[in-house]
Amino acid sequence: MRKIGLSEIEDIALGAALLGSGGGGDPYIGKLMAIGAVKECGEVTMLDPEEVPDDALIVPIAMMGAPTVLCEKAINGGEYRALYDMVRSFYGKDVYAFMPIEAGGVNSMLPIAAAARIGIPLVDVDGMGRAFPELQMVTFTIGGVNATPMALTDEKGNTVIFKTITNKWTEELARAVTMSCGGAVSVSMYAVDGRTLKKYGVRNIVSRSLRLGKALREIKKAEEKDTEKTFLSVTGGFKLFKGKIVDVLRETRGAFNFGRVVLEGIGECKGRSAYVEFQNENLMCSVDGKIVATVPDLIALVDTGTYVPVPTDALKYGKRVLVVGLECFPLWRSKEGLDLVGPRYFGLETDYIPIEQRCKEAGV
Length: 364
Description:
Blueprint: E1 2-4, H1 6-19, H2 27-41, E2 44-47, E3 57-60, E4 62-65, H3 67-70, H4 78-91, E5 97-99, H5 110-118, E6 122-123, E7 125-126, H6 139-142, E8 150-153, E9 159-162, H7 167-180, E10 184-188, E11 192-193, H8 194-200, E12 202-203, H9 205-221, H10 227-235, E13 238-253, E14 256-265, E15 273-279, E16 281-287, E17 290-294, E18 298-303, E19 320-326, H11 335-341, H12 355-362
Parallel strand pairs: 2-6, 3-5
Antiparallel strand pairs: 1-2, 3-11, 4-10, 7-12, 8-9, 8-10, 13-14, 13-19, 14-15, 15-16, 16-17, 18-19
Helix pairs in contact: 1-2, 1-9, 2-5, 9-10
């Protein structure tokens, strides 16, 4: 058990933005929501999964939709109470704690804000260990957990509870309602008991984000010359490419941000080229025509000077970035995991090869 206050929020937002693989929403917007809630309502208690009773009801809180939409259509704060009341009414019992469903700028922050305003704990666990674009893409799906009953609300006060036959159907129907509500909504799904949480959840995701964020902040303050080497060491990342953004192709379609960012090499990568494809999150990185990383491994773009992660909705011409890859949660490398989030699911014409193997073969 530990407390999450203002300083912890800053570091969690920074670390989660790296784990979000370019998605999960703007970390600045999410951070403001969490900071405002903690300032008004007090610090949040964070529990280790082992501290959660087996029969306790744990509920994720998240934003669903295109991250770019949330920049203009913010959450008003009343959504948390609406979701809490809908879930409590459905199950006929109190919600013991909230949890994030993924790691990412907004979706790591909303559960903190919700926990502060409702006055319940946050559990140090999620269902991805990163961010993915579709709501069936969680470890709980592999464990046979239903996404529904799923509670959904928008900032106007419209509410829906879904009960669907599969988690993919939940994604399809909820995505349609999200579009009708303006492209971004607040949701709660995958309500689980403590026993299931401990078996299928990705543990220590919040504390990992906290450690990463603190390390990134300290790198920026360091006076050492080879900060890039330090960054790769503290994150356990693979350096995939270093370049300047020369083109960004982006469109919002079906409440997703789709696109490609094209890079021209700088420094030791001068004379080379690369591109990264994304659907909310970065899906694939190709260097000189050869794929060096794909989902479910993590691909992140960070500023070459500050090492601050750059989300897909903030990619701009001329920005200099380091493309880094991180190994995914081991369960995603199983057959069941790859069926859910492997490269072929996203339309990429390649089988999944672990990032450490791809980098070795490519000499990265």
